[in-house]
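We emphasize that the prediction below concerns an isolated chain of 259 residues; any contacts that depend on oligomerization or on bound cofactors are therefore not represented. The input was used exactly as deposited, without trimming of termini.
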Amino acid sequence: MTQELNPLPLETTHSNDNSNLEDIKQLLDRNIDKMQLSLNSKASKAKVFAILQDCPCSVKCVNEIQSSNYSNIDSLYSAKHEYAKTKLIDAIEDKFADLVTVSSEHIVPNGKLDIVIKPGSKIILKYNKRTIAIELKSGKTADASMLFQIERYLPDCDVLIFVRIPTEEVTLIEAKSIEPDLAESMSRLNRKVSRITNGQLIKVQGEWCRGCTANCSYKKESRWTREYKASLENFGTFLQNIENVIRKTLDILEKELTI
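Result of the prediction step, given as a token string:
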């Protein structure tokens, strides 16, 4: 059951605004903070951001932001993911040993490759004034949420290297080439946050109604139990895939670091 909203004044942006991507991102961050306060939500900002992007129904968004439930996922999935991530970081350090410094929160001199290891799947590399993000995916499944995740990461980097281990896909995406589109998408999301915070909840019926727990006549039973089991049955193939994407990633990095 969702709680009553406590409306707070928010700043918004419009299609004809001249705000740049960074300004819009900072504005969205502030407004999400205010929305979380109005909803009394304990979910992380990253979780809230993902919920807002993944579903056009603001009634479901509010319900999930307030409940912030997590799926029952086998921990072997995260173990395999951390295994792959560690191997990739080791390979970057090995390849660029003369450039590398590993950090969390400190200023790195120009000319050094700074590896910032983030929680989850993202690795951030900083070289001179350039920021390169690496997003690693170790699972076989793919859905729209994966594409929204790419969109969330691009405003914080110059280049995103997206790596899918099962398919051995390693793709470079440049943020600058689509910056106006990212700005418009983020502005639209900011206006959605404003409507939700002001109690303007719009029901939108669709596939996302399955498994929804909001107090709504459109909700439907989920098609799956949300219990996921991982396996080491094809570990040999998994390891081979990791080594192949590592080679591809290092080749891309070598070219990017010479720009």
